[in-house]
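Exercise 3.2. Students should predict the tertiary structure of the chain below and write it as structure tokens, then compare their answer with the key that follows.

Predict this chain's 3D structure.
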Amino acid sequence: MAVSSSSSSSVHQVASQSLWSTVNPKTMPHLVSFSGLKQVVDNTFETPKVRVLKQKMELLGISLENSCLPGQYHNLFCPKCKGGQLKERSLSFHIISDGEFAMWRCFRVECGWAGQSFADDKDLYSGDCANAKSYRQIAEESLGLEPLGAKLVAYFRERLISEKTLRRNAVRQLSDNKAVIAFTYKQNGLLVGCKYRTIEKRFWQGKGTEKILYGIDDIGQASEIIIVEGEIDKLSLEEAGFQNCVSVPVGAPGKVSSKDLPPIEKDTAFQYLWNCKEYLDKAVRIILATDNDPPGQALAEELARRLGRERCWRVLWPKKDEFNYFKDANEVLKYMGADALKKIVDDAEPYTNAN
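Answer key:
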């Protein structure tokens, strides 16, 4: 990849960050175009997976040139920073060889926009979508959500979660089933998905929901963040004074994997971390407040493996009685109160010690 002398140091600085360590801009191959490749390029872009990825990229403003072959790294114009004053081709873009996955990062330090997308979610960007914004507006109107009714407000009140917190986090209910809670997932203020929960603890996600952390906009500028295991625990920590908190969108693994960490494109169970990389990279301290059970402990370990144990702390939930410990943030809030929950989080220990 061609890098100007004025920007090479910033390239190395960004590329060395933990979640992007697999990309070395100095070794990115440069694709040389010549007439004999034209038919190969055209045929490659006709594969269904690459077409899906290309369509997704267009919605994000990434303009793919005809020479962008899978298996190669390419220097493109970043739609976020436009290459700065020098109009640099600062966006490194890559589609893996089989077309399953695309990843990109702007190597201008002032920008750093990064992301990844899989070709398996075809419904999300299929069809004639003019742009991502109009897609989001249509999706929001079609979800059939309404403000929480008295029954669900009472349900949250029993868990010491206030209407103020519910409103700030845009917690809704389904208009055609008023016993279903809708946790809206937003990024940059736009609705990107929804997770549903019944009072009886049945969960499901809306079709096309982006795989991101719940409450991601609350950690945009945070140097210290808290990660919990469920949306209600995120709301509970807000009652204790912590807005710099996010929740994983899916359940915890049954146990810690004994295998080495997979490459980004195969780490599908934790794709939500990679999709939020630009937020997580800003954090110098990450407090893991997962559930106090074997799956919750496994989740904490898997998160620490990916985020770096050296910047992780672990909440130690206290004893509930002679034989049992509190399970999670909401249980502590209910039985001990907001001040006690705040102190427990403030007393988190370095992950290596807690582990």
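Discussion points: The chain has three domains: 8-129, 132-210, 214-355. The CA atoms of residues 196 and 204 lie 5 Å apart.
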